[in-house]
């Protein structure tokens, strides 16, 4: 039995694995966490600000777009707002898992966001603003994923999933351009 355990554990640092039982106050962050936790939390807080601003922009567009045949566009704006909120929630949860504090301060939201707010009235201007914001988010997430590399697989995996949705959003907005 002991021989099987040694065979199964070969290649693993058993002492490091057992050390994970220490420092319980660190929650999910073990000594083996290889990324710069503070830098990852800072990146995630910027992403959180971006997602929150995108929720606000899409919600505004949803409530203010008007004109004939706007039902499909309104529905798309609402769907995107809901998905951006889900992204914000996932990011905030990950920040807490990394022993950070999610920054929801509305006073500094626009300065921390990678994307910009839009208050245009014209549906095509709204679509363009949303497409620009999606492209900004895509590039931001791509750079974050590259910066994190393999040092934090959980955050990287989450960002890859969010990136895929942002790419879908960009395609959706492009399809509404005339």
Draw up the topology in text:
Layout: H1 2-9, H2 14-19, H3 37-64, H4 71-97, H5 109-112, H6 123-148, H7 153-176
Helix pairs in contact: 3-4, 3-6, 4-7, 6-7
Describe the structure.
By secondary structure, the chain is mostly helical. 69% of the residues lie in helices and 0% in strands. The protein has helices at residues 2-9, 14-19, 37-64, 71-97, 109-112, 123-148, 153-176. Helix 4 (71-97) packs antiparallel against helix 7 and helix 6 (123-148) packs antiparallel against helix 7 (153-176). The protein is elongated and about 65 Å long. The termini are far apart. It comes from Massilia forsythiae.
Summary of the model, kept short:
The protein has 178 residues and is an all-alpha fold. The chain has helices spanning 2-9, 14-19, 37-64, 71-97, 109-112, 123-148, 153-176.
Q: Using the 3D structure, state the CATH architecture.
A: Up-down Bundle
What gross morphology would you assign?
A: elongated
> How many angstroms does the end-to-end distance come to?
69 Å
User: How many helical elements?
Assistant: 7
The radius of gyration is 20 Å
Supply the helix-strand structural class.
mainly alpha
Q: For the record, what is the CATH homologous superfamily label?
A: Ferritin, core subunit, four-helix bundle
Provide the CATH topology.
Ferritin
- Total beta strand runs: 0
Helical content class: 55-70%
GO molecular function: ferric iron binding; ferroxidase activity; heme binding
Keywords: Iron, Iron storage, Metal-binding
Pfam families: Ferritin
GO cellular component, one term: cytosol
């Amino acid at each position: 039995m002991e021989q099987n355990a040694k065979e199964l554990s070969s290649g693993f640092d058993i002492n490091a694995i057992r050390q994970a039982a220490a420092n319980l106050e660190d929650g999910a962050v073990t000594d083996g966490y290889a990324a710069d936790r503070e830098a990852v939390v800072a990146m995630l807080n910027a992403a959180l600000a971006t997602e929150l601003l995108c929720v606000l922009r899409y919600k505004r567009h949803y409530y203010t777009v008007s004109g004939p045949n706007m039902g499909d566009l309104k529905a798309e704006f609402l769907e995107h707002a809901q998905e951006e909120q889900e992204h914000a929630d996932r990011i905030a949860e990950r920040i807490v898992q990394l022993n950070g504090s999610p920054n929801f301060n509305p006073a500094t939201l626009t300065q921390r966001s990678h994307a910009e707010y839009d208050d245009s009235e014209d549906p095509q201007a709204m679509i363009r603003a949303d497409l620009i914001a999606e492209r900004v988010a895509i590039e931001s997430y791509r750079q974050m994923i590259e910066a994190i590399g393999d040092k934090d697989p959980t955050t990287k995996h989450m960002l890859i999933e969010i990136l895929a949705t942002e790419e879908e959003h960009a395609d959706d907005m492009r399809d509404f351009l005339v």
